[in-house]
């Protein structure tokens, strides 16, 4: 795998928790990653599968998030559409199924990372983070992912 600085693009998959934080919070590493993806679309590419997108929409529709979403002036559907726009066309994961994580729900993100040829899978989930790597894709927390994204675009700090 080429070093971060040599790659023309940096491919990232965000798990649902990180995607929600990135879309809802006006600060923090998850938001900064989403912001870099917006402002550096040619260099930072976000990937997702239909399964990942469906989980995101279901999560955004949870009553516990309603107040936060409304206070930001959005609807769950508007945030979902923003995420659709930010991500590449959905990657098909149907050809690559299996159980790699101790939590079968996490396998959808691993399959997406593989199908998208992701450099990073960004998560706070211990089951995923304990894997550390999956077919050349690093599995890291948002703060580490942010540092790697900034390095990929030549941004310091």
Structure description:
The protein has 157 residues and is α/β, with parallel strands linked by helices. It has a single domain, classed as Rossmann fold (3-Layer(aba) Sandwich). It has eight helices and five strands, in the order βααβααααβαββα. It has a five-stranded mixed beta sheet with strand order 2-1-3-5-4, with helices on both faces. A hairpin with a 2-residue loop joins β4 and β5. α3 runs antiparallel to α5. The N terminus is likely disordered.
| CATH second-level architecture | 3-Layer(aba) Sandwich
User: What about the largest sheet?
Assistant: 5 strands, mixed
Question: What overall geometry do the principal axes of the alpha carbons give?
Answer: globular
Integer count of domains: 1
Low-confidence stretches: 1-5
Please write the string of helix (H) and strand (E) elements. Answer: EHHEHHHHEHEEH
How many angstroms separate the termini?
24 Å
Question: Any descriptors?
Answer:
alpha/beta; Rossmann fold; 8 helices; 46% helix; five-stranded mixed β-sheet; 157 residues; 11% strand
Question: What is shown here, in short?
Answer:
By secondary structure, the protein is an alpha/beta fold. It is 46% helix and 11% strand.
How do the strands and helices of this protein lay out in sequence?
Elements: E1 10-14, H1 16-24, H2 29-39, E2 44-47, H3 50-60, H4 66-71, H5 76-86, H6 107-116, E3 120-122, H7 126-129, E4 133-134, E5 137-140, H8 142-152
Parallel strand pairs: 1-2, 1-3, 3-5
Antiparallel strand pairs: 4-5
Helix pairs in contact: 1-2, 1-3, 2-8, 3-5
């Amino acid at each position: 795998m080429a070093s971060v600085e040599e790659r023309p693009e940096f491919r990232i998959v965000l798990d649902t928790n990180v995607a929600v934080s990135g879309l809802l919070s006006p600060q923090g590493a998850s938001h900064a990653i989403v912001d870099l993806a917006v402002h550096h679309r040619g260099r930072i590419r976000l990937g997702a599968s239909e399964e990942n997108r469906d989980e995101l929409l279901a999560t955004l529709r949870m009553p516990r998030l309603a107040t936060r979403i409304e206070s930001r002036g959005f609807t769950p559907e508007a945030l979902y559409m923003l995420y659709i726009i930010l991500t590449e066309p959905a990657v098909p994961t149907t050809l690559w199924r299996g159980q790699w994580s101790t939590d079968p729900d996490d396998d959808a993100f691993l399959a997406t990372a593989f199908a998208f040829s992701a450099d990073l899978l960004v998560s706070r989930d211990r089951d995923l983070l304990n894997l550390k790597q999956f077919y050349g894709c690093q599995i890291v927390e948002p703060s580490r992912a942010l540092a790697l994204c900034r390095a990929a675009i030549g941004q310091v700090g």
